[in-house]
Amino acid sequence: MPIETIYEAKIEYLQILDETGKLDKKLAKDTLSDEQVVEAYEQMWICRQLDEIAFKLQRSGRMGTYPQNKGQEANAAGSAMAMVKGTDWVIPCYRENLAMHLHGMPYHQILMHWMGDERGNMIPEGVKMTPLSVPIGTHMLHAAGIAWAMKLRKEQGAVITYFGDGATSEGDFHGAMNFASVLKVPTIFYCQNNQWAISVPFEQQMASKTVAQKAFAYGMPTIRVDGNDIFAVYKAVSDARKRAINGDGPSFIEGLTYRLGDHTTADDARRYRDAAEVEAWMEKDPLIRTRKYLVDQNLWDDEKQASLGERAEKIVSEIVKAAEGVPDPDKTEFFDHMFAEIPADLREQRDTMRTSSLGINPDQVGLKAQPQRA
Ligand SMILES: Cc1ncc(C[n+]2csc(CCOP(=O)(O)OP(=O)(O)O)c2C)c(N)n1
Ligand SMILES: [Mg+2]
To answer: What DSSP letter does each residue of 225-274 carry, written as one string?
Structure first.
């Protein structure tokens, strides 16, 4: 009996706007209008400015750890523009500020999160989003679950979730992919493959040639796109959304991109990355190629750039002012959100601002005899 091939697969790679700013008009048909490309460029530029200022806030002690989005903005812009604000859900990781912003999350709250203020994670009324997720992979399960709820409730719309290449090594990723595909829910899995998971390069993260092929195991339509190309990202996500809305289940998209900055402000990537690699990717910067395209189309010039620069500076300074201007919470709020009814020992701590061990352990700071002042 001859051996039969029962499964074959291929991965397509989609690029519409290349590194030089040249557009494939045929593939670009029915994607972004001129106005939308201008809007995407301006938004990416403002997002980049905010990223630079966030870095400086951390360096000057005004913010905790911060993960820069630099270089990856087209993934967030193209995908968020293909989703419908207020109808679709956005389930973010931590490197897609622009997708969160475009779907209604105020930027200053994102800064508050990184300043250590949990109130930054309060999702405004009507915004269909979960708080940004630092635990790698856990939120993908939420994306599968929310889409399942939408399906059961017969709600229109889809769910998009973002995660990195490293996240696809997590069990939660596979659990989410399996549930979403078996239950045929409207989830779009968007992997920002920036080719590094902190200091672990792609080749050491997985033995597969692409991330996209992991979706074959779950019977999902899958594609790799140039993640620095807003047209390709927009098209792939629009197609995936159409399938989701039609009841055809989840899709997988791998956006091939590059993290131009350090992993976070707590990292120094020069210790493990080749400078030549970073430079080569700087040439593929989504902002540069989008601007080249717009200039070629006579949709952009130096005057518009200068005015955007001024506008961005003002916008970003207002965002920082808003984040830093929120009054500190009362210290007692610390106790407020864990128990429906606060246990007696915690109530005592709250009321006295002292722990019950005080006075028991003489080594505890503050209990030792204070040196007398001369
Ligand atoms: C469950 C969990 N394990 C480990 C970490 C520590 N950690 C933070 S970021 C990161 C790498 C993530 O890489 P990737 O998914 O590629 O995303 P990227 O940071 O490149 O955007 C790790 C391991 C974490 N936050 N959560
Ligand atoms: Mg990564």
So the answer is: EETT-HHHHHHHHHHHHHHHHTT---EEEEEE----S-SSTT--GGGTS-
Comparing CA positions, the residue from 224, 234, 118, 214 lying closest to residue 168 is 214
Whether 265 is covered by a domain: the verdict is yes
Inside any domain, residue 362: no
Name the residue with the closest Cα to ligand 1, atom 19. Answer: 197
**Residue 41's domain is classified under what CATH number?**
3.40.50.970
Pocket of ligand 1 (CB under 6 A): 95, 134-136, 163-167, 192, 194, 196-198, 259, 263
For a mutational test of ligand 1's pocket, the pick from 141, 198, 214, i.e. the residue with the most ligand atoms closer than 8 A to its C-beta, is 198
Residue 94 designated active-site: no
pLDDT classification of 338: cutoffs 50, 70, 90: confident
Out of 259, 289, 291, 293, the active site residue is 259
Could you tell me if residue 4 is inside a domain?
no
pLDDT at residue 319 greater than cutoff 60: yes
Q: What is the pTM of this model?
A: 0.93
Distance in Å, CA 246 to ligand 1 centroid: 33
Ligand nearest to the CA of 95: 1
What is the C-alpha to C-alpha distance for residues 259 and 257, in angstroms, rounded to an integer? 7
User: How many domains is the chain partitioned into structurally?
Assistant: 1
| pLDDT value at 371 more than 90 | no
Residue 333: the pLDDT is 85
Residue-range definition of the domain harbouring residue 261: 13-325
Structure tokens belonging to residue 100: 């969160």
Residue 370 lies in a domain: no
